[in-house]
Design goal:
Pfam families: Peptidase_M78 (PF06114). The protein has helices at residues 3-15, 20-26, 31-38, 46-56, 60-65, 83-106, 125-140, 149-160, 194-209, 230-243, 246-253, 262-269, 273-282, 288-295, 299-305, 309-319, 326-337, 343-350, 354-361, and strands spanning 75-78, 163-167, 173-180, 183-189. Helices cover 55% and strands 6% of the residues. The chain contains 19 helices and four strands. A four-stranded mixed sheet has the order 1-3-4-2, sandwiched between helices. By secondary structure, the chain is an alpha+beta fold.
Length: 378
């Protein structure tokens, strides 16, 4: 173990005011082994480093390299005057998750990074958004038409290597996206506005794919569309093209007038009347007057018009459910089961107590009534 790492371990011991013996007990390590490690005659294992970092309130990355956790800036959907609130919310939600990722990354246990489509060139952000939406749909490997929000979230996480978290956010903030190297994340607000959550997911995916979340905070004025930046307009254009592909929309409309197919399209694509009305206007399927009328509806009204009120209520319930970053959580679970890390990171990612997390992962005792020793019950 190198001298600088030894110094950082000693720094933790000094900062928590512990004796070497007491510290060894805290990290579940024999004192003689800790002494050898601090004298440079023994290397600390990955699980021992994880316990030291946990007890010291540090990250494994800091122990190994001395690099402090990076500052966090976000691309997010919120009103401009609520930017500070949204940023604080993002740090609260993603701060510990990012640390857990960094810890696994240092130990080479983090989920593998996924390659993204190349960013399109050209001067038109609308054309670039449309091209990226096509590439994203291809990478997703399936159509988003009729895809429930939970399945869409799972698919985005799996196919793009993005950790997606659904949690409670301030009212002014619908979602956040963040990227730091291979760590990519989207935070969605739990809400009963299912269409809005779905659109936010696609919007934040657009920010990430175009690299906006690596360039600092995107200042967005939701209430004044004309004030939106190019990045925001491009993310909006991407979301519309990704969620409502032109070819599929035309197939759904078929021989009907676009306005007559509107309620059906709102339901099938899971998008709000406002968003769909703009999509249809931009595709020249309706005129401006029709757009204003159609935008005045609601998802509930469209669902009612086609007899899908029960389905609408089910969507509201689904979009209200909290969700941990499952991709990262499963990597942490595997690392814990392999003895590489402690239960602490797993509990944090699953938002459980350490005792509850252990119980969740404890092997179930065989059911005596179903054992081969009692064949009459089989």
């Amino acid at each position: 173990m190198d001298d600088e790492m030894i110094a950082r371990v000693r720094q933790i011991i000094d900062q928590i005011g512990s004796t070497q013996r007491a510290f060894a007990e805290q990290i579940q390590l024999d004192e003689s082994k800790l002494t050898k490690s601090l004298r440079g005659r023994r290397r600390l294992s990955s699980s021992e480093l994880a316990r030291i970092a946990e007890v010291g309130g540090r990250t494994v990355e800091w122990l190994l390299s001395g690099v402090e956790p990076r500052s966090m800036v976000f691309a997010h959907r919120s009103a401009l005057d609520a930017r500070a609130v949204a940023t604080t919310a993002g740090r609260d939600v993603l701060g510990t998750v990012a640390e857990r990722y960094q810890g696994l990354e240092v130990l080479d246990l983090a989920p593998a990074a996924v390659e993204w489509p190349a960013v399109p060139g050209g001067w038109s952000f609308v054309a670039a958004a449309s091209e990226m939406a096509d590439a994203a749909t291809q990478q997703l490997g399936r159509s988003v038409l009729d895809l429930p929000i939970a399945d869409l979230v799972d698919a985005v996480e799996d196919r793009f290597g993005i950790d997606v978290i659904v949690t409670r956010l301030p009212g002014a903030c619908d979602g956040l996206s963040y990227q730091d190297g291979a760590f990519r994340a989207i935070v969605l607000g739990a809400t009963d506005m299912a269409a809005r959550q779905r659109y936010t997911l696609a919007h934040e995916l657009g920010h990430l794919l175009f690299g906006d979340a690596e360039q600092g905070l995107i200042e967005e004025e939701v209430l004044t569309p004309g004030a939106k930046s190019i990045e925001e307009k491009r993310a909006d254009a991407f979301a519309a093209a990704f969620l409502v592909p032109e070819e599929q929309l035309m197939e759904l409309i078929d021989s009907r007038d676009a306005a007559d197919a509107f309620d059906d399209a709102v339901w099938r694509f899971g998008i709000s009347p406002v968003a769909l009305s703009w999509r249809m206007l931009n595709l020249e399927l309706i005129d401006a007057d029709q757009r204003r009328v159609l935008a005045g509806g609601s998802s509930a009204r469209s669902a009612s018009a086609i007899g899908e009120i029960e389905g609408h209520l089910a969507r509201m319930q689904a979009s209200s459910q909290l969700r941990p970053p499952m991709r990262l959580a499963m990597a942490a679970v595997q690392a814990y089961l392999d003895g590489e890390i402690t239960i602490g990171p797993v509990a944090i990612l699953l938002e459980r107590s350490e005792d509850d997390a252990r119980k969740m992962l404890r092997p179930s005792a065989p059911d005596a009534a179903m054992s081969v020793d009692n064949p009459e019950t089989i």
